Structure formats: C-alpha cells, structure tokens
Amino acid sequence: MANSKYEYVKLFEEEDEIMLPNIIVVRVNGNEFRRFSQVHEFEKPNDVKALELMIECAKAVSEQFPDIVFSYGFSDEFSFIFKRATQFYHRRASKINSLVVSFFTSVYITKWKTIFCQKELRCAPSFRSQVIYCASLDVLQAYLFWRQYECHLNNQHHTCLWHLIKCGKSEKEANEMMKGSQKQDRNELLFQRFNINYKKDIPEIYRQGTCVLKAEVVSIPSLKLISLVEDVVKFKSDGCPVKRQRRKVTTLYSENIASRRFWNEQRCLTKELGYFTDDLNKTHSEYIKSFQYKSKLMPYTWIAIRIDGCHFHRQAASRFSEIHGYEKPNDAAALRLMNSCAANVLESFKDIVFAYGVSDEYSFVLRKESVFFGRRVSDLVSTVVSLFTSMFTMRWNDFFPYKGMKLPPYFDGRAICYPSSQILRDYLSWRQVDCHINNQYNTCFWMLVKSGKTKSEAQKLLK
C-alpha cells in the first residue's frame, strides 16, 4: 500500500469477518440464466449437459479451496459449505464470496468446450452469489432441507410445464393450467396425461439435486492395517514437509440430504461439521427469511467496487503471471486484456460511470443515486467480479493467441461507500499513487534481475 495522505480512505472499508461459531455457506446461482439457456438452446425442462457442467464446476471449486467440505446444487445453483473452524482468508465475507463465484465462473467457461463439444459459447455467462451465516448445525440442516425442497418443487413444476408446452400448449396456457396446483396435482397430471411416474421415471439428478463431497482416501496395505493417505502440499522454510490428508471429490444422490441417515454416514462431514441429531419435515419461515437476507449499502453514497487478481503476481504456489510467461515488469497484452474486460463491464452496467485500473486491479464507480440490484452488496460485487472473470477467460485467446490458458484466472472483490465526491476523488488518487509506487519499484526490481542480480539480491538493494 502506498504511504500517502490519501490512505485515510481505507477507514471507509467495513470489517466483514464472519465470527465463529457461524458455519459459512456460499450460494452461487446463474445471473439471467433464463436468457442464457435460451441463447444456447438448452433442453427443457432439464439439460443434462448443462447440469454436468455445473457439477464439474462445483467439483473444481471444492478441489481448489480445501476448506469446502460439502456442496449441493441443482439447476443453475450450487451451495458450498466450509468446515466449521475454517480460517479461509480470515473469514472475510466479501473475500470468500467473490473468490468462490469468480473461480466458479472461470471454470464454467474453460470446461464449456469439454461438455458442449458441438456448441459454441455465444455470450458471457455470469453468476451471483451470497454468503449465508448458519449459527449452528441445526440451522445448516434447515438450510439444506430448504434448498432440496426448492429443487423438488421447481423440477416438478418445470417438468409439468414443459410437457404441456411440448404437447401444444402455449407457455401462457401451460402456466394457467399449473396455477395453484399442489404436489399431488402435478404428480397426477404427469401420470394421467403423459404416463410419467415422477418418482420412478424422472432421473435422480433432476429430482434430488447433486451432492459433492470429499471422501478420505484410505490405504489398506494389509488386512490388519488401514491408514489415511497424505500428500506433501508444500515445504516450510526449514525444509520440513507440510502434509495434508488426501481426499477424493465424489458425487452422491439422496432423497433427503438433511436426514440423519445420509449426513451421519459421511465421515468427512461429521468430522468437520458434526452430527445431525434429529430429522426435519419442514423449515421454519424465520430461518428462510434469514437465508434470503442481503445487506444493503447506504443510499446516496458513491460506491466503488474494487477487484484484484488472485495470485496474479504475489507470492503463491502457482502465480498466474509466471505460469503464463508475462513480460516483466509490465505485460502490454495483459494490460490490454484487463482494459477490455473493464470496458465490457462499463457497457453492461449503465450505473457504472467510471473505472480506473492498474496491473491486475480495477475499480468501478457507481453513480451516487444508483439503486442497481437494490444496492445489495453481495449482488453488486459478485456480479461485477463474475462478469469481469468471464470476459477475461473468454477473451484470453484474442490477446494471447499463442499462449494457452493453463490455469483458471479468478479475482476477489469488495464494495466501499464514500459519502462525498471529494472522498471518492481521494480514493482514486490513493489508487493512482499506489500505481506509481508499485510500478516504480517493479521496474527497478526487474531491471536489476535482468542485469544479473538474483531476486533476493534485488530485494535487498531496494529495501
């Protein structure tokens, strides 16, 4: 950070640490996916390839972030549950929320060609996400019950609706026929008119949704000895290995994921989260209201949404810039790609009136009177981060035609409110001062390295 007179603007950044013992859940769902599914001609009522792609993304997210122990999803949504004691990014809600949705978006695009071999990706997909706080395991159980109940209702409704449309009804007529119908009515409609037994004839992936979890990998060298397999993930400064228990990401299906029988049979879940003690037959309306709650930013204040590339340049096991051979100290093509993504975000969201970027960072300013997404902070940040990630991934080949993308890029984001235009200008000045200082340092550093100095020697000279 630049040590300047403008740094006071950091005081406007809110602390958003999720306190223990809250269990962290991040729910990701498609943004304007009704239109997206029409453009890409998804099969109705369910497109198995679209679901397979969502599941592949969920598995990739689970593998990328070790503290995620369980995921559940259906249609265009997935919920990711972190282990109870996680300290992932110091439990900061904005950081966790944006990283998960950004990585999910990136994988969705990179795996599109694998799943839809004969179908071109015609427009940029984007997702919204939010963090749900579950104060206890009972609340988490209620959340899972609620989401699977929504899966049942939505799939049954859409199955009836699209069978009526396919037999000649207009969408308006089909909706009128479905209006006010109950679960049993819809089952009868499917059986009487289409000879479909909902429970027996509709695949479980549509009816039940999909669970993704990490099962422990066990080694059995002899009948008397069973051991858990561990992998070396990194080394300490003294050379000692840091080991992590190997887990295999698997998918499961269950009619009731909130039941004691299903949950308590999964050792990886009971170990990290605990045991369910009772079965549920409904979710309290107060719980549902809390699951749907999204905090809003102060009205009539300037909103700045700042996004940063995750592990693009800083010390990490796999720095994006080094793996992709970025020019040092600055890569012109990478900067043009960032600028192109920012321009697309401005074109897509009319309430964004200005953007400023440097290196792997961009700040987007929304007009003071904006009521975009009702000023709900999770929707604002996740949608901007997701679309930026989407454009970065889709347009990579336009700027790096001879470099294949080796890792999915992803970004974190946060939103800050500034009550006056003067403070907003100071925020932008702070970011530009930071740009000057960082670029000057990096230019000196890489010139020293290119002249023959080691990185350690260059750092000492510039200290």
Automatic annotation (TrEMBL):
<dbReference type="InterPro" id="IPR038469">
    <property type="entry name" value="tRNAHis_GuaTrfase_Thg1_sf"/>
</dbReference>
<dbReference type="GO" id="GO:0005525">
    <property type="term" value="F:GTP binding"/>
</dbReference>
<comment type="function">
    <text>Adds a GMP to the 5'-end of tRNA(His) after transcription and RNase P cleavage.</text>
</comment>
<keyword id="KW-0460">Magnesium</keyword>
<keyword id="KW-0342">GTP-binding</keyword>
<dbReference type="InterPro" id="IPR025845">
    <property type="entry name" value="Thg1_C_dom"/>
</dbReference>
<protein>
    <recommendedName>
        <fullName>tRNA(His) guanylyltransferase</fullName>
        <ecNumber>2.7.7.79</ecNumber>
    </recommendedName>
</protein>
<dbReference type="GO" id="GO:0000287">
    <property type="term" value="F:magnesium ion binding"/>
</dbReference>
<feature type="domain" description="Thg1 C-terminal">
    <location>
        <begin position="140"/>
        <end position="219"/>
    </location>
</feature>
<dbReference type="InterPro" id="IPR024956">
    <property type="entry name" value="tRNAHis_GuaTrfase_cat"/>
</dbReference>
<feature type="domain" description="Thg1 C-terminal">
    <location>
        <begin position="422"/>
        <end position="463"/>
    </location>
</feature>
<dbReference type="InterPro" id="IPR007537">
    <property type="entry name" value="tRNAHis_GuaTrfase_Thg1"/>
</dbReference>
<feature type="domain" description="tRNAHis guanylyltransferase catalytic">
    <location>
        <begin position="286"/>
        <end position="419"/>
    </location>
</feature>
<dbReference type="Pfam" id="PF14413">
    <property type="entry name" value="Thg1C"/>
</dbReference>
<keyword id="KW-0808">Transferase</keyword>
<keyword id="KW-0548">Nucleotidyltransferase</keyword>
<keyword id="KW-0539">Nucleus</keyword>
<dbReference type="GO" id="GO:0006400">
    <property type="term" value="P:tRNA modification"/>
</dbReference>
<dbReference type="Pfam" id="PF04446">
    <property type="entry name" value="Thg1"/>
</dbReference>
<dbReference type="GO" id="GO:0008193">
    <property type="term" value="F:tRNA guanylyltransferase activity"/>
</dbReference>
<comment type="similarity">
    <text>Belongs to the tRNA(His) guanylyltransferase family.</text>
</comment>
<keyword id="KW-0819">tRNA processing</keyword>
<keyword id="KW-0547">Nucleotide-binding</keyword>
<feature type="domain" description="tRNAHis guanylyltransferase catalytic">
    <location>
        <begin position="6"/>
        <end position="133"/>
    </location>
</feature>
<keyword id="KW-0479">Metal-binding</keyword>
<dbReference type="GO" id="GO:0005654">
    <property type="term" value="C:nucleoplasm"/>
</dbReference>
